[in-house]
Amino acid sequence: MTDHTSTDTAYATWTSLQPITRPGDVPITTPIAWMENHRADHSLALLLSRHDPDRHGPTDALACLALGEAIRTELGHYRGSLVHDARRRGASWQQIADALDTDIPTAQQLLRDWADGQHRLYQSEPLSGHRLGLTATEHQAVLDLIPDH
């Protein structure tokens, strides 16, 4: 049986954060699923109080807005990485663009921007002696996935 004590404690700490009224109130290490669970709780409270708008004041609505923005921002950080994963696994540029509901040049720019950011991260100061990001060779390999680069 798996011991979830540390995760359970971290989740309990997360759920006790009140009030969340700005995306910055959400710690950067918070899993997206936790944010969504908390947003859903506020959304349900908001739904249940629709007939009595003065019941809770703006707290639930503000929390839904703030958590929604935090989730959107966090998901945005993964877009370039996911484009990379999809392309490496054989997805066509049209499939990727369709999945992003955009055009091919925009999808390719997203990958280029992600690769450039990962390469800058690699060139920056190592974290605890470990480098993160893409080496020059890895960076070029990602750029080679983009036609006419």
Notes on the structure:
The protein has 149 residues and is an all-alpha fold. Helix content is 63%, strand content 0%. It contains six helices and no strands. α2 (32-48) runs antiparallel to α3 (59-88), α3 (59-88) crosses α5 (104-123) and α4 (93-100) packs across α5 (104-123). The N and C termini lie far apart (50 Å).
What is shown here, in short?
The chain is an all-alpha fold. It contains six helices and no strands.
β-strand percent reads: under 5%
Q: Provide the succession of SSEs.
A: HHHHHH
Fraction of helical residues:
55-70%
Question: DSSP helix count?
Answer: 6
Number of strands: 0
Q: Structural class of the helices, strands and pairings?
A: mainly alpha
Mean pLDDT: 88
- First-residue to last-residue Cα separation: 50 Å
Strand and helix map with partners:
Blueprint: H1 5-15, H2 32-48, H3 59-88, H4 93-100, H5 104-123, H6 136-143
Helix pairs in contact: 2-3, 3-5, 4-5, 5-6
